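Reopening this ticket.

The earlier resolution said the output was attached, but the attachment link was broken on my side. Pasting everything inline this time so it's all in one place.
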Amino acid sequence: MTLEELSELKKIPIMELKREQLSNADEIAIDLSKSPAQRVQSFLEQVKNPFAQNVGKYVLQIGYMDETEETLNDRMILLAKKQANIL
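Inline output:
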């Protein structure tokens, strides 16, 4: 998958995604004993669109915020605090 193809897949609005053109999340298997680069490569080889997948009866679209200093860990901590009503 080229960077151009990835960029185009990322731009597709969720309402325009077609279930039959997406991979099923439960069919994706990643070997955690491999290096991070090998895991990413394996993931990209298994999915049709790395930004959207079928998860049960739902279509899940994944996005990332540009130009932020917050890490994924920062956001997960915030989510956990919100869930625990700590905020």
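Reporter confirms the inline version is readable. Residues 3-83 form one domain. The chain has a mean pLDDT of 89.
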